[in-house]
Design goal:
With 571 residues, the protein is α/β, with parallel strands linked by helices. It is 63% helix and 7% strand.
Length: 571
Amino acid sequence: MSISGPKKTSTAPYALLAVILLISIVPYFWGLGKADIQDVDESTYAEIAREMVASGNWISPTLNGVPFDQHPPLVTWLMAASIKLFGATPLAARLPNALLALAGLLIIYAIGKRIADKETGIAAALALVTTPAYHLMVRDARLDMALMVFIAFSLWGIISYLYEPKKYYLVLAYLASALAFLTKGPIGLVIPILVTGVFIIMTRRWNLILRLGLPWGLALVAVILFPWYWAMYRAHGSHYLYVLFIVQNFDRFGTTNHAMKTDPFYYVHTFLWMILPWVVALFWQLVRGFPAFRRARFDLNRLSPAGPAPGFMTIWLIAPIVLMSFSKTKLPQYIFFVLPAAAFIVGKFLKDYVSEAMSDRAQRGFSIYTFVLILILSAIAVVIVTVMFPIGQPAWNVLLGIVLVGLIALGLFSLIGKKRALLISALCLLIGLAHLTIMLHVSPAMLAYQPYKEFAADLTRMNISDQDIYFVGKNIRSSFPFYSARHALFVQEVDSPTLLEETNGGRSIYIITPEDMKPKIEEAGYSVEVLSTRDYYHTSLPTKKFLLAKTRTDAGFPLILARLSRSCPDN
């Protein structure tokens, strides 16, 4: 079947997609603060921000009162500003990432409009906002949303300069790279240089090396970074900078710092779930576009809406994944910054699909795939709210059922009537409904198994003074300090000199520990008075046993809040 000839683009389908884009943003704010702060990473950055506000020291980040030397402070500055305005709440901690998510959508729209047209920009932004990874970066407030947005802004500046060689585009690109550096270290500068460098090599336009102003650009980045790094050197010495630069970047790249097992293709299959449900569209577009990219060799002279400039986006997608695949330490969020490139490629496919700029067979095949995807996602939604995390309110179940049936009917109507924009809209509305359900129901239900907010309330209710709490036999990277506004100190062994010293002279301290540690603590000569008991589960690594409502109560283990003293205190 031959590909349809050029057609005049109708604005109506893209007006519809723009409306769906606006609707898809709603779940990013509605219910943003309903779920508790998630243990481990989100709680770490939220607590650093809270301590900034409490101490008034916004220059030197601390965690539990100890200098934090893992990452620069830009995101925690943003979170601290939000906490200063709205209080120490999950909503305040997550709000900066939600606003950055909006900025990311504007950037990918601008890139799509610059390289192709505004219709591609709208479709790319819609593809980006409906990915699981983008939603996760808002719901779990960490550094990765800011890193992705600033890298995308930097590469937008480079792309804009290639089309329109005005120096202020380069200034914005280097400024954005500096902000990315202040977010997560050298990776914020490495990725824009890597992508641009590979592009230069593939185009053989060596004069770009001079035209892009790398010497003065790096000098500008250094001027922006210098004040904070110099302040840290003055306050903490060279070892602080060694850990910040070498250990947290090059050591992580060259050695395994996490127990999670990975494989050489870890980032390939990680990327597949990141870009759901657009995997087929992405690879379809890559295959369709490859011959044109190869023939043109990404010729810089043909940078125009009709030219092969999307090749820059393909490099942005592939080069970082290849680089990070050589890293010994691998975590999913380490490649989230390729999402805008993937979204653009998907957006180009969706634009061609809606505009009928592909073969009838391809359009029909993707339409069927999209409708099947609607059926699968609807079935998954039913399983989640009935088997995994039951809503428990018949009225809400009925309403959800009506909405799902309506979206399936809309998808079927669109499939039969060949209304491609409406079919894409039905899929995106279903994804938006899924995101909203996660925000309002699933996440709060899961994070209820993190008991630290309740332990903090127990301490307040018992009128226990704001002394430090000791976590015995369990790491302290939890939300407890954030909710209790007190330090939590980690003691790994029951015979720790710290416990002996703190309980000398008949003094009592308060501890949080797994219940099965109580006999070991008592055998070591301590008296343990249990004040409260709460069930705990490590929700960031859910197992099948935890995800099923019938077996969830057996998946975790109890933690106790207790008063600890010496059975035979020293005289």
